[in-house]
Specification:
With 211 residues, the chain is an alpha/beta fold. Strand 4, helix 9 and strand 5 form a beta-alpha-beta unit. Helix content is 47%, strand content 16%. Helix 1 runs antiparallel to helix 2 and helix 1 packs antiparallel against helix 4. A 6-stranded mixed beta sheet has the order 3-2-1-4-5-6, with helices on both faces. The two termini are 17 Å apart. The protein has 2 domains: 127 residues, HAD superfamily/HAD-like (Rossmann fold, 3-Layer(aba) Sandwich); 81 residues.
């Protein structure tokens, strides 16, 4: 059995951590009088990045540069560095695994399944997340779009994961997006499992699985 897993918002709370980090930037932006960037965060326009395919192979630093250059033509390097450092610290301080992830990984490993992570963004950014989250050693292979040059909007990385373990007959792709994870899974004739995370009133997380 081969299980191909997504990382962001399937195994960990990436967008929630980004939201918290963005909010924590607001006092710094106001102090620096960066009102346009303040408005960018306040209106949640950073969510548009999720739909820009080119950005899915970039790391945080490169994405931040794109955002800043989009909003400001000339910004002091010291100010950019202050913004970047604060965001980076706050993001990783709030990055968390969902509570069902470790039990799931332990169970499928006990079953003898091969587990492959297929994820977008730069290699350094994603591998740092795995180190912080402490789950790197659960994977038999890690495929990052920043390494291959192909985002999950195309099926290349899913085919690559499949080729690494050709003897596995049953293949599952688990992720949170129809346009990447489910589409990629169907391209390799895998059973696709769509995960939708919902925040509970108590502050925990539930996992809704749609086959």
């Amino acid at each position: 059995m081969l299980i191909i897993l997504d990382l962001d918002d399937t195994l960990c709370n990436t967008w929630e951590a980004i939201r918290i980090a963005a909010i924590r930037l607001i006092p710094t932006l106001l102090r620096l009088r960066k009102f346009r960037m303040f408005a960018y965060i306040l209106t949640k326009r950073y969510r548009e990045l999720e739909e820009i395919r080119e950005l899915h192979i970039l790391g945080f630093e490169e994405i931040l540069d794109r955002i800043i250059n989009k909003i400001y033509k000339n910004l002091e390097n010291e100010e950019v560095q202050e913004i970047a450092n604060l965001f980076d610290r706050t993001f990783f301080a709030n990055l968390r695994l969902y509570p069902d992830v470790i039990p799931f990984l332990e169970k499928v490993r006990e079953m003898g399944a091969k587990i492959v992570l297929v994820t977008d963004s730069s290699s350094s950014w994603q591998r740092r997340k795995l180190e912080v989250l402490g789950i790197k050693d659960y994977f038999d292979a890690i495929i990052v779009s920043g390494d291959t040059g192909h985002s999950k909007f195309e099926p290349y990385n899913f085919h690559l994961a499949r080729k690494k373990f050709p003897r596995e007959k049953k293949v599952y792709v688990i992720g949170d997006r129809d346009d990447t994870d489910m589409k990629g899974g169907k391209a390799i004739h895998a059973t696709t499992i769509l995960v939708k995370r919902a925040t509970l009133k108590e502050g925990g997380q539930s996992m809704q699985i749609m086959l």
